[in-house]
Amino acid sequence: INLVYDVITPLALLTSIESKVQQTLPGVVVNWQHRTRERALKMLDNGEADIAIMPNRSSLYPERPIAWKSIGDVELACFARSDSPLVRELNLTLNHLRLETQYITENMLTLDIASARISPVLHTVSNSDLLCELLKFGGWAVMPKHYMRPLVESGKVVELKLEELGRGGMFGLNVFFSHG
Fold first, then answer.
1. Can you tell me the distance from the alpha carbon of 2 to that of 48, in angstroms, rounded to the nearest whole number?
2. For residue 61, which of 176, 179, 178, 180 has the smallest C-alpha distance?
3. Most buried among 24, 43, 46, 177, by the most CB within 10 A?
4. Residue 83: left if φ>0, alpha if ψ -120 to 50, beta else—which one?
5. Residue 105 CB: number of other CB atoms within 10 A?
């Protein structure tokens, strides 16, 4: 089985799938491939992939005629290093974020989530691990809470609380599969 996924997909979900496949279908090999949504849907369309786990784009139907099902939501939030000037702001707003460097993953950029692009100084990073390392030196980022949890728990990064965003953002996660 060729399974493609977006980096925003919770690792706990992916490892749970692997575990279930091994338990119920012990001889089946799963090839895990990280891809962008656009590439994943093309791979499903031309038979290179069997299953894709991707964020939705807030539209009723996917870009291609492919079967899909919603499987849950991913929470997003803004994060910065623990000693960032943003952390010291008593009433942090989007205007404060606009004045600082924002890091964004390539995949988040291609999803075109409006709340993910805030600063005019936008640095695109193709690797989430690298983004997290860069964040330790400055700037801020919109990232999934599940991905940032270890850094928050270590005290290296904090979740920023913004007046305008309330409890943060969220988007749906879907599984797409070919008809054959």
1. 7
2. 176
3. 43
4. alpha
5. 24
Q: Which of 113, 111, 108, 153 is nearest to 128 (CA)?
A: 108
CA distance 116 to 114: 5
Please choose, from the candidates 90, 111, 105, the residue with its C-alpha nearest in 3D space to the C-alpha of residue 135. Answer: 105
Instruction: Find where tokens 């784009």 sit.
Output: 57
Distance CA(5)–CA(7), nearest Å, equals 7
Residue 135, judged by CB atoms within 10 A of its CB (0-12, 13-18, 19+), counts as buried
With residue 169 as reference, give the H or E element that holds it: strand 169-177
Q: Can you tell me the distance from the alpha carbon of 86 to that of 163, in angstroms, rounded to the nearest whole number?
A: 13
List the structure tokens of 114.
């409006």
| pLDDT at 164 (0 to 100) | 72
pLDDT digits (tens, 9 = 90+) for 101-151: 999 988 788 776 666 788 999 999 988 899 999 999 999 999 999 999 999
Q: What is the pTM of this model?
A: 0.80
